[in-house]
Amino acid sequence: MLIAVCSLKGSPGVTTLASALGARWPGGQSPIVVEADPAGGDLMARFRLSDTPGLVSLAAAARRRGGTDPNLVTQHTQVLNGGLRVIIGPVGAEQARAALSVLAPGPASLLRRAADQPGITIIADCGRVDPDSPALAIIRAADTMLLVARPHDDELAHVALKLQAAQQWSRRPCLVLVGDGYSTAEVSQILRIPVMARVPSDIRGAAALCGQVLNRRSPDKCVLSRAAATIALNIHANSQQPAAIGTRAPQLRLAHPDALPPNVFVHPRSSTAGNGVAAP
Length: 280
Ligand SMILES: Nc1ncnc2c1ncn2[C@@H]1O[C@H](COP(=O)(O)OP(=O)(O)O)[C@@H](O)[C@H]1O
Ligand SMILES: [Mg+2]
Prior knowledge:
By secondary structure, this protein is an alpha/beta fold. It contains eleven helices and nine strands.
């Protein structure tokens, strides 16, 4: 299975959620988190890893070998404390874009091929995406796209504008809200979008998932991680359901931006968010 995690604006917590999903993936599987952010990766610095192996070495190997061997992906991972396998992106945007452009559409088909192998789940952190992103090919090839946003006026205004296009990128687009702001019900109601899940604000949990050691508690015990476990379980369970031949997953339905009341996101109220998968 191939899952793409991305945002349309800001820095809402894409990398943190991708790592949390990987750490809490169900079924005894050990997924691989691929840092495919064209703006450059953060895991190397956060976890003080070496720059190789990673996305750049994977791109080089794919170029040498024609990018057809799905085993290449598992050969370019590093392992974080706690056992999560990651393919780290280079820090520099130029290098990251170069690696992605060597691999694209290669990384899509290479990652797709790897993700099609039994027992392999790949979670691609595609960063902030626009129609020119070299990571878009990965999103298009993914089984599920998690679109991450903070429920604030500025981020939601961008979601409102771009979501209609974004939902065409993926066969299963899902909106995930992170932290406080508008309630899940308000976002769903105003944008007419089913919100798949709400990840609570959890500064200590997020810091632990970003490699900082703040206390001895396992990062798995934090509310952020528990929310990620619920999301992972939901995606995993959905993937077990056979899709009817010739049908697509239901699309997000979004009111046309012109139809939205003006200044609809002007007065954020405190969140009524819960943990994990949002109520329908
Ligand atoms: N649920 C959360 N609660 C609180 N802080 C968070 C949460 N998710 C992420 N963060 C923090 O937000 C910052 C950006 O997170 P990151 O995952 O790197 O965002 P992105 O990949 O979207 O740029 C980091 O400092 C991270 O610790
Ligand atoms: Mg990131």
